[in-house]
Amino acid sequence: MPVFNGERYVAEAIESILAQEYRHIEIIAVNDGSTDGTEKVVCSYAGVRYLYQHRQGASSARNSGIKCSSGEFLAFLDADDLWTKDKLKLQTALCKADPGLDMVFGHAEQFFSPELEESLKGRIHLPAGSMPGYIPGAMLARREAFLRVGFFDARLRVGEFIDWYMRALDHGLNSCLPPEVVLKRRIHDANTGIKERDARKDYLRVLKASLDRRRASAIKASEEESDKSNEPQ
After folding, report:
1. Cβ(187)–Cβ(110) under 8 Å?
2. Separation between Cα atoms, residue 98 and residue 104, nearest integer Å
3. Average pLDDT, whole number, for the chain?
4. Chain mean position to CA 222
5. I need a labelling partner for 79 at 20 to 30 A (CA). Which of 16, 38, 102, 138 fits?
6. Tens of pLDDT along 96-115?
7. Which domains does the chain have, with CATH numbers?
8. pTM: predicted TM-score of the whole model, two decimal places
């Protein structure tokens, strides 16, 4: 769990983890240079491992947590979001039933945080019902498969999960998307998508990197095929 100035919401997020029906978990919260009371709130939970780093961004914080973890599976939760109580139970059961499954997603529902001003709510379109959750908080991945793809790109301020997911597809990871809701995503005035509007060029970098990888892969495959055709019969 990456946390930056999450004093207001992090307790609810932690409680949603502690409420999981699947009990074999380790909780690692990485304080990414908060200046509020985040440390006090997180450290009030005896079952949470607390790490601190100077402000480096959510990607770096997630990477730090991964390096300190030891479980067979990896799951992520932002400090302002909530898991449904059967999230881990559902996803680990699917992985154990299918050894070839590398990652499991789920559906997500968005909700307005109670303190959000009405004027801001009116400017944000909130889809009714759930939607496919191809986001960190809705994913469970086998540790081995995740590390095969590599860590999150800490240079990106936004779009880091899209970048990782595209790399996962390039590596041929297998996934599934059950219909159950596994994540409640909070909408508030400090969401990264609202704060980091000027970093949207990172999405273009992610797209270009993916296209470059696929182009290089296609060229390599073509050269290998050409070499085979030129071999003596």
Report:
1. yes
2. 11
3. 88
4. 34
5. 102
6. 999 999 999 999 999 988 88
7. 2-223 (3.90.550.10)
8. 0.81
